[in-house]
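Data deposition worksheet. Section B asks for the primary sequence of the deposited chain exactly as it was used as input, without tags or linkers unless they were present during the calculation. Section C holds the resulting structure in token form. Section D is free text for depositor observations; keep each observation to a single sentence. Incomplete worksheets are returned to the depositor.
Section A, Depositor: J.P.
Section B:
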Amino acid sequence: MSTISTAFQITALGMGLVFAAIILLWWMMAALTSLMADASSARNASESDAANVAPVMGSDTQAQAKAQAAAVAVAIALAEQQTSHSVSTPPTAVISAWQLGMRTRQLSQKGVPVARKPRKVG
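Section C:
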């Protein structure tokens, strides 16, 4: 009976360590998430301060900035459209004599007729 009780103790210890490691990782992820949320809220606060400054500019300046941003976005989209569709077909694969022999043998084993040139005898 001592062997079975030792096995149960080892199993319980192993499972306990696994669950303890999982709980530790869970706690660490929660801590990192809360730290990053604090940093992003501080970043959002600074962005909102910058947004409060933007209405001070004249409406002409804002319209020009939006027009420039739109022009840049259109230029980038057109450039991506031109480069993304220029895909050429890959060259045909050149196989070695060994690969050709192996593939021919596999086809002949499956019962697929393989066309071969007749040999000259004599």
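Section D:
Residues 1-50 form one domain.
The mean pLDDT is 80.
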